[in-house]
Amino acid sequence: MPTPKDAPIERPVFGKLLKFWRGVHRLSQEELALELDASTRHISFLENGKASPSKAMVEAIADVMSMGQRDRSHLMIAAGFTPDTQAVDFYAPDYKWLRKAMSLSLNAQDPNPSALMDSCGNLLMVNRGWVAFFQDMLGETDLLAVKNYYDLIFRYLFGQHDMTGWENAPSLILMSLQQEAIFNGDVQLQKAIERFALYPCVPKNWQQIASKVEPMTSFRIPIEINGQLESFFTVTHNIGSLGPAAFLSEPRLVMITLYPEHKTSHNRISKPTTPIEHPLLTEPPQSASG
């Protein structure tokens, strides 16, 4: 189909971003070319889409413009490359503000069970509702042994009853993790996925099942409570930097909260009336007078 003569010329996203950042730093094409030891013609071709940059060129441009991790990641994605990111220590002093923000977020979900984890599912923080809910199911000793959220889901929640009719839930979880591992080249996550896939509750054809279901930020999971199967919504919040690189920039954190689907299930979740203890428990919210 021919393109109308008055139709705007579409330039690749990388070219648009490059021109934008030249403007931010008040660099002409000639000045940028000099910094990169490249020709002005090549810079022009990068901006109008006649040439594509190598990964080394993108890194060099980011260095010249002293880009931080977020903006460097955006430039990499626009050029068709996966950003190189380094894992960060959630417990490092520099992230005290983030731990405080996550603590407030988790406490706001009480009494609904809510947990914060890293991209591999390793638990970082939990709220009082989470401890109370799963302590009743597993017991204090077994719950203390749980280090990974997905191990908890696959072993204790999905593994305690017949999953017939609920095959979508474990399949969707694994499909989401698998694509993230491939996209990011995350070796540790890939090893975790291979371990999760061995649980009996995971269908052998989980990839085919998940491929036919559109993933959402929320889906239902079955949880057996006192011999009765209850349905819960699991709502996922991905926590990262703002912008296109939100799912790539470190720290890549995930907060998952369980909400009972039916009113009758609300009785299963209530505020703890006795002191709750757990090494990952957030600090209790301060009173208005505190």
Quick structural summary:
The chain is an alpha+beta fold and 290 residues long. It is built from twelve helices and five strands.
How would you portray this structure in words?
It is a single chain. By secondary structure, the chain is α+β, with helices and mostly antiparallel strands. The protein has two domains: 13-78, 434 Repressor (Amino-terminal Domain) (Orthogonal Bundle); 93-268, Beta-Lactamase. It contains twelve helices and five strands. Strands 2-1-5-4-3 form a five-stranded antiparallel beta sheet, sandwiched between helices. Helix 1 (13-24) packs antiparallel against helix 5 and helix 2 (29-36) packs across helix 3. It is elongated and about 70 Å long. Mean pLDDT is 84; it is low at 285-290.
Question: Any idea what the CATH architecture of the largest domain is?
Answer: 2-Layer Sandwich
The value of Rg in angstroms is 24 Å
Number of helices: 12
- The counted number of beta strands is 5
What is the averaged pLDDT score?
84
GO molecular function: DNA binding
Protein name: Transcriptional regulator
Organism: Marinibactrum halimedae
Pfam families: HTH_3 (PF01381)
